[in-house]
């Protein structure tokens, strides 16, 4: 199979060779960097080895889920050979070690072992780290491939891959921003020391940690035990999955057969899932929604200009745009029913429960808002300069965002107002009779601010230096926002079921 990748048309072979060159160059660079750690001190070497090894191990687990590539070593492909389940599992596990990613990992792991030998760690510890680390990654990839083929194969789509990638971004970007903001000053920051100690006791970092713990005089025995137990558990899980794959029939659905369903192929087969899928389709393709989403970060950034002109310290101004983003994100769906135009009859005519309608319509905002805030909050904290403000900013944003969603769940049913129809320019607004639109917008916007006053006050105390207020803002803001969201969904659900006729009348006359 490896040689087969070098056969075919010229373009495919060229891409494969280019990819191999990139992998080879990257591997050589990583090996050189690991070998140079011998002169950097055992604490720095341990930190780099554990954090890098943990990230690589997590990557072997995530890649099969995100990539959605068919497994060439799927046990079902070898069912006709007639090997016993245990022997087939062993053969495929060994065959899984013969791959380009594993070869690159093996080279890096051997370089790490050589580096630990230069530091003074016995050869046996370095060799054990190489064996346990490589086998852990290989078995993790095998098991995740098997789980993907069992549970996600029939629903694989670019939308589902996009969801996984978005989840990775939500985790990776804040962590990257945090690491980039640390000041080393010739020694490992205490935050990283604590993170390394935690990862050294987990399946992700145990195999890579115990040689460094031997050099540091730490508890290497516990990490070694966790690494061995991880390999044993993964091997048992792999054997069970091979048995399951060989004794079950693969579902006939395929990507091409369901590819046209888009988000409907990803969402749960429930009324709320159908509403969420339809809403996601509109939010990510309708120009009226896209314009509103693009304007939010721009409007939030503009708010910093008058503050800077007025002489507000830049460290405080850096915290202002993110709460504005959270506020406007929560405010976005306050008139979502009106954007449906006459399509809302599907919800009313099919008897969709109000709860399903309310929850489904909030999914796109959560899908967009959570990753956006997850990236914006750490960036704002870096610009501010004090990571102690992180809990407070999270609490304030959670209160504004969730409170806005809760109030929007009521407003979009109780007071919808006319908007441009589907396909029309988002900058053309129809004439409206009365002040219903202005009142609905104002009530949701200012209502979210009023309800979030406690979180804003605790956040201000945190800016003044009260560390306990930052924790209070986190839990208090999250509690307020979640409470308003639950109450808003409940009230909006009742109103949707009772006002179905009026909603239909509104859709037909605007």
TrEMBL record:
The chain crosses the membrane at residues 12-38, 44-67, 88-115, 121-141, 162-182, 220-241, 289-309, 315-332, 362-383, 389-417, 438-460, 472-496. Keywords: Membrane, Transmembrane, Transmembrane helix. This is ABC-2 type transport system permease protein. It comes from Microbacterium immunditiarum.
